Amino acid sequence: MAAQLDGVLEKDLQEKIKNSKVLVVGAGGIGCEVLKNLVLTGFLDIEIIDLDTIDVSNLNRQFLFHKEHVGKSKAEVARDSALSFNPNAKIKAYHDSITSNNYGVNFFQQFTLVLNALDNRAARNHVNRMCLTSGIPLIESGTAGYSGQAELIKRGLTQCYECKPVPGQKSYPGCTIRNTPSEPIHCIVWAKHLFNQLFGETNDDEDVSPDTADPEAGAEVGEAALAKDANEKGNVDRISTRVWAKQCDFDAEKIYNKLFFEDIKYLLSMSNLWKNRVPPNPIKWDAIVEEGEEITDAVARDQKVLTHSQSAKVFAESIKSLKESFTKLPEGDYLVWDKDDKHAMDFVAACANIRAQIFAIPRKSRFEIKSMAGNIIPAIATTNAMTAGLVVMQAFGVLKEQYEKCFHIYVRLVTNPRKQFIIRDKVLIPPNPKCYVCSAKPEVVLKVDTKNVTVRELRDDILIKALNMVSPDVTLDGTSTIVISSEEGETDCNDDKKLVELNIVDGCVLKADDFLQNYELSITILHKDPGREEAAFEIIADPSSLKPKEAEPSKDAEMDDAQPSTSSGQNGSSTNGKKARYDEDVSGEVLVVPDDDEMPSTSKAGTSGSGAAGSSSSGSGVEKRKHVEDDDEPASKKVKVSSQQDDSDDDLIIMDD
Q1: In whole angstroms, how far apart are CA 143 and each of 23, 65, 117, 654?
Q2: Strand locations in 74-197 (E)
Q3: d(CA 458, CA 344)
Q4: Residues forming the active site
Q5: Under 8 Å CB-to-CB from 104, ≥6 apart: which residues?
Q6: Residues of the chain with pLDDT under 70
Q7: Which DSSP letter does residue 471 get?
Q8: For the chain, give me the number of helices (H) and strands (E)?
Q9: 283 to 179, 262, 264, 358: CA distances (angstroms)
Q10: Which one, 36, 38, 228, 571, has the greatest CB density within 10 A?
């Protein structure tokens, strides 16, 4: 390896590279490049983990994979390909999920450092917590199109991955999706909901029928609907969309007429909705006018905006194919929508465009709809390669323990005023003292509808999905009540109980503990009565924000006591009020950007954060999380830190591979 030749790297660094043990999490676009760089740089002891298998769409940017590898494990093929660069390396591959119980604190503690190359937030949060608990430095990375970033996360020294606010997935009011769409994305979301109603996992919140409870439509609409649909006994016989579709044998014409003619006519009867809107135009199946030539070329079909008749034909073909796949499944099983599944994608694209035409909304090509439906930002191979190179340069800084030079570093499409497209921060941002993951005493306030939310929803939607726990145990503080147990079957009897039935009411405190993550969290419950379109819960990471303010502090006092801000979570998501992501570079090796003393300072004045400073050794196994005391000092060198972001740099938020 050229990197091991005398003079290429310092002798001391070469030895540390040889003797280090590295874990790479993810073998996708960035992961492949990182693994290749590690092997070519002389790293000899590497482990890589990824649950995915290779898809044809990966081959244009994940260069360790070839056509013959399609369908095989990414981690295993990446290992075999990387060994061709250096057969002396020892690479162990895991075709598994990093969130599995097999990879606990002891597993992480065997590594010198961990390199994240993941494409989803939940796994990133999990690895972040495992590295914080085990005291192992983590280098986080991500790309989005032509933009990329790499950052060091080290307990007590830098912000952790969850110290910064993360924008939640955009959501839309149900009445807008079902009754009054006005943008292409509304039609696309409706089409994805329809897929689930017909073939996927059903969810009452994803109903596609007209919403008679829409307050804008008026209460009389709901009453009229009940009267119209009532049987002789005065009751309304309701069946699900899927049951109805099965009864008509998934007949494309009948489904089309129900969705795009009868339901639209019903919406027109809700006259209040159309006082200030253009009313929709229902179209019956036998009234469709043939337009445009038949498109047989797959590429042209992907890029062209189809006519209504062409979309209707795709609609019928996709329903036929999906029906065949669905009926082959065991009873109770269902299809999962995947943007890379041809028939599933065809179905959503066709339905979205048909609905868009009915509501006079601009239609989109299949390619555009795929990008919007799958939340896709195209992956650029060169961005992955550059970011992976920066990750390994960061690793050099960690091995040399030059943490003071490990600033967050960005790759950008647009250059800054100094014509630079690789830009680093000038300071390390300290941990957020209000972070509900890495602070000394993690705590959150949970505003929740205690009268209607069940224990099952508390576990699945709040603790696991929103707070990213894996196997939580929950007790009611001050009592012996076990609300949730990670032991299988122990608290199943509680699953369908409302929180109030277990005395989980306004003002009580829950203690949540995730043994796998060695993570403990105190949760203060506040009851809320949500509105119709409001989320059933809200997580607030800074309890002090709920206390009444005695007086407004002076501006001088604000400057003296500056802390990272903390905002409230909304729409069923969590925030802990963290500033936008910071920037880092590794060391003198990256010479693209001048050092701090060469760059004009444009950042606002900031004070040192008073976050929980402390260090975690990578010693023997940890049974319970050891919280860092406020007066502990970091074991590493004194580092220049600031709680303020450099204003000269645009912020990049969470970018996936």
Answers
A1: 20, 20, 10, 8
A2: 90-94, 113-116, 138-144, 147-153
A3: 32
A4: 175
A5: 130, 516
A6: 1-5, 7, 165-171, 213-239, 292-293, 295-299, 376, 532-533, 543-657
A7: S
A8: 18, 15
A9: 16, 9, 9, 7
A10: 38
